[in-house]
Specification:
Keywords: Signal. Residues 1-22 form the signal peptide. This protein is 29% helix and 38% strand. The chain is built from 2 helices and 4 strands; from the N terminus they run H-H-E-E-E-E. It has helices spanning 3-18, 30-46; strands at 55-63, 69-79, 81-93, 102-111. The chain has a 4-stranded antiparallel sheet with strand order 1-2-3-4, with helices on one face. A hairpin with a 5-residue loop joins strand 1 (55-63) and strand 2 (69-79). The chain is elongated.
Length: 113
C-alpha cells in the first residue's frame, strides 16, 4: 500500500472511529478533523509497521485559543503482537494544508507496552 493510500485509509479509520462523515468538515466538526490530522503522524512516530491500520482509543479533543486543538489518546496496532502508545498532539490552523487545514505544532508519543 503506498503512502497516499495509507493516509486515506488512516483518515477513514480515524473519522469512522470519531463518527465524522468526511475528511473536510465545517466548524462543528473541526475537533474531529484535528484528531484525524494527528493519526498518521502518531503511527509514524510510534514506529508502527507501514502496512498496519492502527486504531485509536480514549481520544479526547480540547479546544485551545486561536483555533488550536489538543488531541490526546491511545493508538494501538495488532500484528505480530499488540503495540500501543499514548499520545498528545497539538494542531494549529494552516491555510496551506488543503486537506485538513491544520499543522502539527506538538507531538508526543509514549510507548505503553
Amino acid at each position: 500500500m503506498n503512502r497516499i493510500a495509507r493516509r486515506a485509509t488512516a483518515c477513514a479509520i480515524t473519522l469512522a472511529a470519531l463518527g465524522a462523515a468526511a475528511c473536510g468538515a465545517d466548524e462543528p466538526n473541526r475537533s474531529r478533523v484535528a484528531a484525524a490530522k494527528c493519526s498518521l503522524p502518531v503511527a509514524e512516530k510510534a514506529g508502527f509497521p507501514q502496512d498496519s491500520l492502527p486504531s485509536t482509543e480514549n481520544v479526547e479533543v480540547e479546544a485551545l485559543k486561536d483555533g488550536r486543538y489538543r488531541v490526546t489518546g491511545r493508538s494501538v496496532t495488532v500484528g505480530e503482537g499488540t503495540r500501543a502508545v499514548d499520545f498528545t498532539c497539538e494542531v494549529a490552523p494552516d491555510d496551506t494544508d488543503k486537506l485538513r487545514g491544520f499543522k502539527i505544532t506538538r507531538l508526543e508519543v509514549t510507548p505503553i507496552n
